[in-house]
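in:
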């Protein structure tokens, strides 16, 4: 177990892996098809989220938020993720879903997620088919997040907002829905034991690239919501 004295700005990559869930089965490929996902949300199983509330590390007032979990319908489903800009006050530089704080004018969490995806990466709504929502996830920074799962039709052209998004990329859904890629970590901060998951993914090297593969370090709230999505699909 790692012990740290200052939680803000620490590098999660330096915290040792305590275990990996090799013993759990991945979601079967036939369940990771668009029609199978539509049916799963129409007729959801009985299941329990594994991650719901992180231990707080701030005294700020709670705030409602929503994120879009956009599954792009390529030859196999991929998950569209963003790397947050490094000048943001919350979770800068981290891998996240498109999304953000709920505005007073938003009708519901779905409206928040769609609006934020448009503002952050210019994802057109006409390409998005909302399937449903997952249970709320409360971050240590006091955001109460509703994950909105959607299928996305290819053919869009993204335009990331440089003030919010440093990069946009896709990860095969089958990789993320395989617990053999789910790593557990823990550390102690001010006498409180904190635990989280990471799901590091290495992008394939493009043919024109000469600098080697790039690691996408998915962890924290993003990994926690993906773990809940795994539990939902494997129930």
């Amino acid at each position: 177990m790692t012990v740290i004295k200052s939680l803000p700005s620490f590098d999660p990559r330096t915290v040792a892996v305590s275990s990996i869930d090799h013993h759990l089965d991945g979601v079967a490929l036939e369940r990771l098809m668009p029609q199978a996902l539509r049916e799963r949300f129409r007729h959801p199983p009985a299941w329990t989220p594994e991650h719901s509330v992180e231990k707080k590390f701030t005294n700020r007032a709670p705030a409602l938020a929503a994120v879009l979990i956009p599954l792009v319908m390529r030859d196999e489903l991929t998950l569209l993720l963003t790397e947050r800009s490094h000048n943001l006050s919350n979770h800068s530089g981290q891998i996240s879903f498109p999304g953000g704080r709920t505005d007073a004018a938003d009708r519901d969490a779905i409206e928040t997620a769609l609006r934020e995806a448009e503002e952050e990466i210019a994802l057109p709504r006409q390409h998005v088919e909302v399937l449903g929502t997952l249970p709320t996830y409360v971050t240590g920074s006091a955001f109460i997040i509703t994950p909105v799962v959607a299928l996305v039709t290819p053919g869009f052209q993204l335009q990331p907002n440089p003030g919010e998004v440093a990069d946009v990329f896709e990860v095969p859904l089958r990789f993320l829905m395989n617990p053999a890629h789910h790593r557990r970590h823990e550390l102690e901060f001010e006498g409180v034991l904190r635990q989280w998951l990471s799901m590091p993914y290495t992008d394939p090297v493009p043919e024109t690239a000469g600098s080697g593969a790039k690691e996408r370090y998915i962890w924290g709230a993003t990994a926690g919501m993906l773990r809940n999505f795994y539990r939902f699909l494997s129930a």
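note: The helical segments are 34-42, 109-121, 173-176, 220-234.
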